Amino acid sequence: LFLNPSVLLLDEPTNHLDMESVLWLEQHLAQFKKILLLVSHSQDFMNGVCTNIIRMHQQKIMYYGGNYDTYVATREEHEMHQMKRFNWEQDQMKHMKEYIARFGHGTSKMARQAQSKEKTLAKMVRGGLTE
Fold first, then answer.
1. What pLDDT does 27 receive?
2. Which of 5, 3, 44 is nearest to 27 (CA)?
3. Beta strand spans in 6-125 (E)
4. Residue 131 pLDDT level (bands cut at 50, 70, 90)
5. What's the predicted TM-score (pTM) here?
């Protein structure tokens, strides 16, 4: 820390430190103006130090601005939106499958509409559904 590096990597820096040392380290790192990559289980420590959070999940990297509490709130909001979108897609697919099963062999107009819905359904699946 006293060499003032341009990149600082810390893995669980609060382990085995007394409270006074943790507070000093938090204050020092909060003033650190260069790149800091931190792994920690201490949410209070991360709230005091972090200004940006990077999360790697399913081979994708997501960037979040703010401290740890902001990250948690933003992530929960994103996951809730994603779940709503997933449920909507599943509902749309269910209705399309029911329509295809009911009208797929009916009159020519209804059969064409069923074929159109079948194509739309295939396009949804090819395009990638919400995970």
1. 94
2. 44
3. 7-11, 35-39, 52-57, 60-65
4. low
5. 0.70
